[in-house]
User: Which sequence fits this backbone?
């Protein structure tokens, strides 16, 4: 298994606890924040920490279930992600921020999926990722890509396609891109897929069934005139496509991994959602920046 | 003789910003050696103090009441003598501010 903060190899939850305690001695921000957010706000000793880490990572109902539960808690739980709150009834500034920052996400996305293909020896993975790259970036004769729908949404809200394509990602988006590039290039295909495809759960319609307090957006926006048609087209696409999609990736990973590999995937997933968290904040910040310019 | 002014917060057990009892990172805030869980919480607190002073024109702050967390952002009230200033802020996980607004 690996440390969910620095990805250092550890032998057991006992040694993971020792590792956290030694990082705590140094007040290392990443490790301290992980303990604060996921384990306990109050300092606990080795034995209890080891037990709590084991409980946190224990996959009662399998890997897929653990990923979904952890993701839903983080983004749709008691303190939902601010972007999720804003996206319930998205205002124009949020949609603009979304359109510009997400271009960079998708740009990285297809590259990460390509690294995963390169690292895999499995045909299911190749087929899955090629379908993914096609629908996200290239599209087919019958259906424009998700990226194209994103650009159209941005244009409908007054942005220029060229400005989106030529924009420079905000620092949080840039750091996230770097991590996703590193992870998919250098780690196993299973870890790469865990880093990327778990993120698609963000738009999964079943989030409410999985215990989320909110969905990605309030479905009533689809029937009202509060958002433009182009925004509906874009949101609908992800909403429909990502349902079985993200879960299919988790099933592929689970089928082709032993316990040790799944534990490594958990660590990479934890790291990936931290970057994703900040990336979603960057959509809001970009919205503010574009709003103030106009 | 110089009077030492201590900046207090409602976080009495742990980190001056988040109240966690992990880590031990000291930083001088307004002449007071405050304890935080890590350098990021310390930097956020320092920047918060700077922004409160910038908004109010105060020379120092006696007390800050903080509510919320990293996800929700923090609703705060700062006090200087009889004056109070209420505000809200949110940061990225590296401590960079996204919002700071008067409430
Ligand atoms: Zn570590
Ligand atoms: Zn703290």
Assistant:
């Amino acid at each position: 298994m690996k440390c969910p903060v620095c990805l250092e190899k550890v032998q057991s939850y006992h040694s993971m606890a020792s590792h956290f305690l030694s990082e705590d001695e140094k007040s290392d921000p990443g490790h301290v924040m992980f303990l604060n957010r996921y384990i306990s706000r109050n300092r606990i000793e080795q034995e209890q920490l080891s037990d709590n880490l084991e409980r946190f990572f224990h996959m009662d109902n399998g890997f897929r279930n653990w990923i979904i539960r952890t993701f839903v808690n983080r983004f749709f739980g008691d303190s939902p992600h601010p972007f999720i709150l804003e996206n319930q009834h998205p205002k124009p500034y949020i949609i603009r921020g979304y359109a510009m920052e997400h271009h960079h996400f998708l740009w990285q996305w297809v590259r990460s999926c390509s690294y995963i293909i390169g690292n895999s020896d499995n045909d299911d993975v190749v087929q899955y990722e090629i379908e993914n790259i096609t629908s996200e970036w290239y599209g087919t004769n019958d259906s424009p890509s998700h990226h194209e729908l994103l650009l159209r949404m941005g244009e409908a809200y007054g942005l220029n396609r060229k400005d989106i394509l030529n924009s420079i990602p905000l620092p949080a988006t840039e750091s996230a891109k770097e991590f996703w590039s590193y992870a998919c290039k250098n780690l196993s295909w299973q870890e790469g897929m865990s880093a990327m495809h778990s993120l698609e759960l963000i738009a999964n319609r079943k989030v409410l069934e999985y215990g989320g307090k909110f969905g990605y957006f309030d479905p009533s926006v689809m029937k009202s005139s509060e958002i433009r048609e182009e925004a509906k087209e874009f949101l609908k696409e992800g909403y429909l496509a990502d349902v079985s999609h993200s879960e299919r990736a988790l099933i592929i990973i689970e089928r082709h991994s032993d316990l040790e590999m799944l534990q490594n995937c958990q660590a990479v997933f934890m790291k990936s959602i931290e970057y994703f968290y900040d990336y979603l904040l960057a959509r809001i910040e970009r919205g503010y920046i574009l709003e103030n310019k106009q | 003789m110089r009077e030492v002014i201590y900046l207090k917060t409602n976080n009495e057990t742990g980190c001056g910003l988040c109240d966690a009892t992990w880590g031990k990172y000291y930083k001088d805030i307004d002449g007071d050696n405050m304890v935080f869980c890590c350098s990021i919480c310390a930097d956020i607190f320092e920047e918060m103090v700077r922004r409160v002073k910038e908004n109010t024109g105060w020379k120092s702050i006696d007390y800050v009441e903080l509510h919320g967390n990293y996800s929700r952002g923090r609703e705060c009230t700062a006090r200087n003598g009889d004056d109070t200033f209420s505000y809200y802020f949110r940061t990225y996980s590296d401590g960079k501010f996204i919002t700071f607004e008067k409430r």
Q: What stands out?
A: The radius of gyration of chain B is 13 Å. The beta strands of chain B are 8-9, 25-29, 32-36, 63-69, 73-80, 83-91, 97-102. The longest strand of chain B covers residues 83-91. The pocket of zinc ion (ligand 1) is lined by residues A 3, 5-6, 8, 19, 23, 31 (CB under 6 Å).
